[in-house]
Structures are given as structure tokens and as C-alpha cells.
């Protein structure tokens, strides 16, 4: 965010037209706990953010028993690390252990004499009184142990309170949601969410609304995460730096993220006065300079506190990393060369209102394509050096192994085991730089495969996938595990300086961001306005929103975040009714798909070629239906039997998406919530899409599985196709000559204007339906036609 807009639009409250909204004087009693009758009734929950978040975590962590064991072992693990480290420092005689000093053993005659034979472990361990005396003699060790004990007792109190709260959540699942503990693993989150929405009508968990929507629940669970996603999207957080020799680097660690959340959301003096309400002074533009100075002072104090605690945090980070990764490094030396999605990448790639398990599943699907893309870049010079270094190290290693096989006494030679370990490590590292001789270099296709799952890439990547600059930028999102460990170890040292210097310089921009991009939603509280998925206020004309958005450059989300997040939320929550402007956008997207599909090859032809190209997506087994859908679009142009032309990928994606409408593949038809016992499926599919062309022979003619796992894969494939299609259209629009600049953003509408706009007749809007169905028919007609088929 290069320019801070002082008064683009002040904090405002979204209109609510629900009949059950309470009057203004009741706002101060928005979430007051009321006990009514039975102990197991849940009326007017005091903190719905915490309540819904606990319900979500309880489901994702597989119930009370798993959560309790996880918390208990976390406490035991901390106690073990502290105790074992103290033992190693104070209770071990290292001169005896390393045989630098002879051990006095008792002789048969009763005397003591030095024994230069083998040293046993008890010989190197000091007696308990001597060990305790060493601990008491060191003031630093006593101080560190007192601090560790204080922190452990604090964590113990939090764990006990947390377990008491989750025991209540267990009762809520059993009594209110009618989901027994032994069936929790078989229930999808969509089903739990549907039961929550149904329960609101009966128990009025939220006093402000008679009806809860999927978006309300996501807003409460992801309130603060949506702010962080928006701040990364608008480049507000100072996490990019240009360093000598290293070039541009991104530094965002768990420690820095924790400090940002402490500073902005829930710490003392934070911008939020409660879990759901921004402090009133931050909603007004008049005192922005004073608030920026106040926030800057908070950053300074927090940075100094981090600097003071830096030695202790650094010691803990080093010890924890040593105990966690040393055994893994010995067993699998190449594990540190594996990659993982960076913390910055997770925020950059995250949709607004995307839950943790949805993000994890999406990035897990993209792990193999991303690894293939990164591994496709090789250095010929490093390959030559690696081959020769590996040869020399491997030769010496082979001789030493042969000697140990011939005579095991070779292992008693000093440092022989260390030499074997280091040589094995050198050979493993050298092999990682030697490319696969059977690899075919196709970076553009691999980058398209990556895009299909991560959904966001910078505009300059397409067409430049073969360049090292693109790979370096990709490495910022998909980093080596060794880099991740190094960053976490450096975090206690670097974080204080980032808080004191880099972040303080953005204090005024941060104040403006929270004022300009916060809205109050009745029954939810203050949320990030981007999370409303409002195309009119945050859409980007370069992402199919032209003519439907009034957002200025400052208001627009970057990289099509609003549009792609809207499509993702509509697909994963097909019962959700979007706002009018968002519905118009979805309708326009459907029309565009149908138009492009009319000029594209038929889906049958594309799917027939899918088995030949699924190797880009999967390394194992026959093609599954979701993989086949993606592979039919991501196939290299040479494999297709139509001429390559600009937009051919978009046409192929449009053809597959349009065929979903014809075959009713992803039709969502929810049973009335809550579903009857034993009903697992959230989505229902009436038929398969051209199953004969992609299904394995033994599975042909078999109906599509109705399990939530399979159907979530189809939803993921549908979203991947939309991401490819929308990126292709965006690239085409960028290549067109620029249009005259659009007029500036209109002021925010009043409640009456918004209501009039929502009731204005529109032919396109009257035909729009939720995105997940693609021209779905009425449910009654579906049931009638199904009954007729059953009769015949």
C-alpha cells in the first residue's frame, strides 16, 4: 500500500433489514449470557467468537480425548526439555564420558584403582547430592528454572481452563447438535455448520439475529485472520527486505506473527476492546495522528520487551529445534532439503473466510506440483560439482563400510562413526543437486498445475515460468524446511528490531487501514470489510468486475482476492445467498463461461485425453475423476487435437465447467438441517460426468460416492477450474488496450439506498443462483423427476 488514504471512507455500519434486530439501546447488551431452565441450554452465548472457534477446533482435533492428550503431552514435553537440559548441564561428568579421565573402579581386594577399560553410563553420571549442589551453586540456572516453572504453571492453568471449556463443548455436541463422540470423526464440518444454523432458530445463541448464515459463522471464527490476510494482500506489513548478496527476502515467523496479533487484536492496549469490537477512537479519522503515535509507542515497548526476553526465547528455540530435528536429520539427512509452505505464503494464498482445514487441504494438493516446478530448475555447474563430490565422498564411504563389515572392531577407531555420518550427509546433499536424467522440462505447464491449487500467482509469472526470478519469488511462498528452521531460530533476534523500526514506520498506515476497512455487521460485530466479499466496494475491474465495482485502487483487493474468495466461498457453501452485487458478478461469470464453452472443444474430447496428462498432477495410481477434470484443462497444447491459440486454456476450462451444468455433477441438495442420523453427505450428486471416459474399468457404471471426502474433492476441482479460467481471462484483459479511466468511487450508500438497489429489477440477477450448482433446477422439480424415474 504505497499511499495511505486518509478519508476514502470512514468506519461505517452495514445496514441490516432483519425484522428481529434489536433497537439501539440494546446494543450494550449484545452478547449477555442468560441461563434459562436446563443446564444444557445454550441461549445468548456471551462470547460467540470463542464459542464457535472452540466448536471448530473440537471438530478438527477429533474430540475431547485427543485434545486432552495433546495438551497434556505438550506440558510433559516442556517439562522434559527443561529437566533433561538441566540434567545434561549439571549431572554429567563429560571428562569421564569422553574418557579424558580414568575411572576409579573397586578392585577385588577392596581398593580403588584406575580402570582404563570401557566406560559405562553410570560412571559418567554424578550422584544426586553432587548434582543438586552444582545446581544450587549456579544462580543463572536457578533463575532460568524459576522462570520455566512459572511459565509451566501458567500453561497448566490455561490447559485446565481450556479442558473445562472443551468439556462443555463436548456436551454441546452430544446434547444440542446430536453428534455422539464416537461419530465425530465421521461428520464433516459442513454438517456441523448446518446443525449450528438450525440450532440458532431453536435456542437463539445470538440475541441479535434469528437466523445465522454460513458467512456469520466464518466471520466469527476468522475475524482476526481475515485482517491479517487483507494486510498481506495490501502489502501493509513490512515483511519484505532487500539484503546484500541475498537480494529480496521475506521474513515472517511464528514469533513475529504472535507479536502482531498481540499488538493489534487481543493484547493489552490493542486496537480491539473485545473479541468483536474495535475501540471507538479508532473508528474516527479526527485523531488518527495521535492514535498512530500511541500505536508507535506500543510497538516500541513491545519491541523492547522482546529484546529483553530475547536470550531466554533464543535458548528455548535452540533446545526445541535440537531435540525435534536432530534425530530426523540423522535418519533422513535429505529431510531438511524438503519444502514447506511458508507462513507468508499461507497468508498470501489464503482466501478471505477460508477455514484452516480448507487451506491445508488445498495447499497439500498443490505440494507435489509445486515441488515438481521447483525441482525442474537445475544448475549445470552445481550438477557437475555435485557428481564429482558425491563420487569422492561415496568412494571413501564405501571403503569404510566394507572395512566395518570385514571387522567390526573398525568401529572402535576414534571418530570413525562421525566420519561415516558426515560422508553419508555429503553424499545425500550432493545427490539433491543432480537432476533426474529422465525429467522433461515444461515449467509453464507445471506452473499451471500449481495455480490450479494455490489459486493466486503474481501477474508477471505466466509466460515467465522458465526464469530464475519467478522461481525465487516462488521460493518465498514455498521455502526449504532448513530455511524455515533458520528463520525461527533467528526470530528472537530479528523480531524486536522489526517491531521497533520497520513496523513503527507504518503505524499511520495501519491506523488508516483498520478505520477504512472495518465495518460493523449486526449480530457479528466489527469485521474486516474485505471479508464481506463485496464486489461493489472491493472488486477489481481487471478481474471480471468491470462495471460492477465502484472501488478505487486503494479499496480494491490485489490479485483478484475478492473475486476468487467469493467464488470459493460460494462453492464450499452452496446454500449461502450472496449480496446483490456479488450475485450479479456470479451471474456474469456463468454467462461468460457459457459463451466461451460454445467456441471450445466438447468436454468428452478433452476428458478422453485426460489420462495421458494426469502425470502432471499425480505420481501414482489410475486417474480419479477430479484429477481427470483438471488434467483435461492442464494438458500440454501438443496433446490436444485442436490448434493452439491464445485463450485455449480458458476455453478448455469453460467447456469442462459448462459440462458440469449439463451433467449436474456438483449439484448440491441439502437435506433439511439437522440431517437425519446416519446421513453423512453434505452435497449430493445425481450423475457422473462422462464417467466412461475417465473412470477405471472396474469402477465404470458405478455410482459416484456420496461421501463428503469425495464430494469435497469435486468441489476443489471445480474451484481449481474457476481459478485457471479467471486467471486466463485476467491475462487476456491485461493484453487488451487500456480503456478510459473509470469515474471515482461513489460514496457509500445509505440504508435506504442499499435497500432500493437490492430490490431493483435486473434480468441477469433474476436468473442468478448459487455458484455451486451451475444453473440448478428447482428442488421440487428434481424430486418430481426422480419419482417418475423410480416409477418407470
UniProtKB/TrEMBL annotation:
It is found in: Preautophagosomal structure membrane. Its main location: membrane. Residues 1-27, 666-706, 729-792 are annotated as: Disordered. The chain crosses the membrane at residues 137-154, 298-323, 381-403, 415-434, 482-503. Keywords: Autophagy, Lipid transport, Membrane, Transmembrane, Transmembrane helix, Transport. The keyword Transport applies. It is a multi-pass membrane protein. Residues 747-758 have a biased composition (Low complexity). Residues 7-20 have a biased composition (Basic and acidic residues). Pfam families: ATG9 (PF04109). The keyword Membrane applies. Residues 737-746 have a biased composition (Pro residues). InterPro entries: Autophagy-rel_prot_9 (IPR007241). Belongs to the ATG9 family. Phospholipid scramblase involved in autophagy. Cycles between the preautophagosomal structure/phagophore assembly site (PAS) and the cytoplasmic vesicle pool and supplies membrane for the growing autophagosome. Lipid scramblase activity plays a key role in preautophagosomal structure/phagophore assembly by distributing the phospholipids that arrive through ATG2 from the cytoplasmic to the luminal leaflet of the bilayer, thereby driving autophagosomal membrane expansion. This is Autophagy-related protein 9.
Amino acid at each position: 500500500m504505497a499511499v495511505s488514504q486518509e478519508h476514502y471512507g470512514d468506519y461505517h455500519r452495514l445496514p441490516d433489514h432483519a425484522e428481529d434486530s434489536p433497537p439501539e439501546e440494546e446494543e450494550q447488551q449484545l452478547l449477555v449470557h442468560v441461563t434459562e431452565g436446563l443446564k444444557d441450554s445454550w441461549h445468548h452465548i456471551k462470547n460467540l467468537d470463542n464459542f464457535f472457534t472452540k466448536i471448530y477446533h473440537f471438530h478438527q482435533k477429533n474430540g475431547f480425548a485427543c485434545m486432552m492428550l495433546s495438551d497434556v503431552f505438550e506440558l510433559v514435553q516442556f517439562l522434559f526439555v527443561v529437566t533433561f537440559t538441566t540434567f545434561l548441564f549439571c549431572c554429567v561428568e563429560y571428562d569421564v564420558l569422553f574418557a579424558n579421565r580414568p575411572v576409579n573402579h573397586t578392585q577385588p581386594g577392596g581398593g580403588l584403582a584406575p580402570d582404563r577399560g570401557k566406560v559405562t553410563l553410570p560412571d559418567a553420571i554424578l550422584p544426586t547430592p553432587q548434582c543438586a549442589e552444582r545446581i544450587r551453586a549456579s544462580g543463572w540456572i536457578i533463575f532460568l528454572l524459576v522462570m520455566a516453572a512459572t511459565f509451566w504453571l501458567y500453561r497448566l492453568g490455561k490447559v485446565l481452563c481450556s479442558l473445562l471449556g472443551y468439556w462443555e463443548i463436548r456436551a454441546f455436541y452430544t446434547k444440542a447438535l446430536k453428534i455422539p463422540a464416537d461419530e465425530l470423526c465421521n461428520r464433516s464440518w459442513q454438517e456441523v455448520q448446518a446443525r449450528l444454523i438450525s440450532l440458532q432458530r431453536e435456542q437463539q445463541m445470538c440475541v441479535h439475529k434469528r437466523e445465522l448464515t454460513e458467512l456469520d459463522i466464518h466471520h466469527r471464527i476468522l475475524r482476526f485472520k481475515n485482517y491479517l490476510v487483507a494486510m498481506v494482500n495490501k502489502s501493509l506489513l513490512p515483511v519484505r527486505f532487500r539484503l546484500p548478496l541475498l537480494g529480496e527476502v521475506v521474513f515472517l515467523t511464528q514469533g513475529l506473527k504472535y507479536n502482531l496479533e498481540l499488538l493489534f487484536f487481543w493484547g493489552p492496549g490493542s486496537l480491539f476492546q473485545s473479541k468483536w469490537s474495535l475501540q471507538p477512537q479508532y473508528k474516527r479519522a479526527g485523531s488518527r495522528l495521535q492514535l498512530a503515535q500511541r500505536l508507535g509507542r506500543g510497538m516500541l515497548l513491545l519491541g523492547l520487551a522482546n529484546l529483553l526476553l530475547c536470550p531466554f526465547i533464543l535458548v528455548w528455540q535452540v533446545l526445541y529445534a535440537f531435540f525435534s530435528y536432530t534425530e530426523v536429520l540423522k535418519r533422513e539427512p535429505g529431510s531438511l532439503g524438503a519444502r514447506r509452505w511458508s507462513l507468508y505464503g499461507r497468508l498470501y494464498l489464503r482466501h478471505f473466510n477460508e477455514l484452516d482445514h480448507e487451506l491445508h487441504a488445498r495447499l497439500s494438493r498443490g505440494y507435489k506440483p509445486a515441488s515438481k516446478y521447483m525441482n525442474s530448475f537445475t544448475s549445470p555447474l552445481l550438477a557437475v560439482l555435485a557428481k564429482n563430490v558425491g563420487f569422492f565422498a561415496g568412494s571413501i564411504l564405501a571403503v569404510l563400510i566394507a572395512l566395518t563389515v570385514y571387522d567390526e572392531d573398525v568401529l572402535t577407531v576414534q571418530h570413525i562413526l562421525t566420519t561415516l555420518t558426515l560422508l553419508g550427509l555429503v553424499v545425500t546433499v550432493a545427490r539433491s543437486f543432480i537432476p533426474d536424467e529422465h525429467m522433461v522440462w515444461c515449467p509453464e505447464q507445471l506452473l499451471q498445475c500449481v495455480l490450479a491449487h494455490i489459486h493466486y500467482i503474481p501477474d508477471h509469472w505466466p509466460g515467465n515460468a522458465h526464469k530464475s526470478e519467478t522461481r525465487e519469488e516462488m521460493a518465498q511462498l514455498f521455502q526449504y524446511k532448513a530455511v524455515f528452521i533458520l528463520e525461527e531460530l533467528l526470530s528472537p533476534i530479528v523480531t524486536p528490531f522489526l517491531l521497533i523500526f520497520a513496523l513503527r514506520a507504518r503505524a499511520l498506515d495501519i491506523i488508516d487501514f483498520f478505520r477504512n476497512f472495518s465495518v460493523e455487521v449486526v449480530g457479528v460485530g466489527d469485521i474486516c470489510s474485505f471479508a464481506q466479499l463485496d464486489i461493489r466496494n472491493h472488486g477489481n475491474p481487471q478481474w471480471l468486475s468491470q462495471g460492477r465495482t465502484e472501488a478505487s485502487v486503494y479499496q480494491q483487493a490485489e490479485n483478484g482476492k475478492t473475486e476468487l474468495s467469493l467464488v470459493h466461498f460460494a462453492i464450499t457453501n452452496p446454500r449461502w445467498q450472496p449480496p446483490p452485487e456479488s450475485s450479479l458478478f456470479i451471474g456474469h461469470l456463468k454467462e461468460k463461461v457459457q459463451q466461451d464453452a460454445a467456441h471450445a472443444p466438447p468436454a468428452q474430447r478433452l476428458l478422453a485425453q485426460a489420462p495421458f496428462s494426469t502425470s502432471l498432477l499425480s505420481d501414482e495410481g489410475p486417474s480419479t475423476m477430479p484429477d481427470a477434470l483438471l488434467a483435461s484443462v492442464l494438458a500440454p497444447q501438443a496433446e490436444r487435437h485442436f490448434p493452439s491459440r491464445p485463450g485455449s486454456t480458458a476455453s478448455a476450462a469453460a467447456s469442462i465447467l459448462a459440462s458440469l451444468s449439463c451433467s449436474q455433477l456438483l449439484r448440491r441438495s441439502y437435506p433439511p438441517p439437522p440431517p437425519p442420523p446416519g446421513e453423512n453427505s453434505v452435497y449430493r450428486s445425481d450423475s457422473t460426468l462422462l464417467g466412461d471416459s475417465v473412470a477405471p474399468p472396474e469402477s465404470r457404471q458405478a455410482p459416484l460416492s456420496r461421501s463428503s471426502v469425495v464430494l469435497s474433492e469435486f468441489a476443489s476441482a471445480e474451484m481449481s477450474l474457476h481459478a485457471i479460467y479467471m486467471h486466463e481471462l485476467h491475462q487476456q484483459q491485461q493484453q487488451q488496450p487500456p480503456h478510459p479511466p473509470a469515474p471515482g468511487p461513489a460514496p457509500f450508500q445509505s440504508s435506504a439506498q442499499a435497500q432500493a438497489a437490492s430490490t431493483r429489477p435486473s434480468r441477469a440477477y433474476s436468473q442468478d443462483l448459487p455458484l455451486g450448482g451451475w444453473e440448478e433446477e428447482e428442488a421440487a422439480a428434481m424430486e418430481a423427476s426422480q419419482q417418475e424415474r423410480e416409477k418407470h
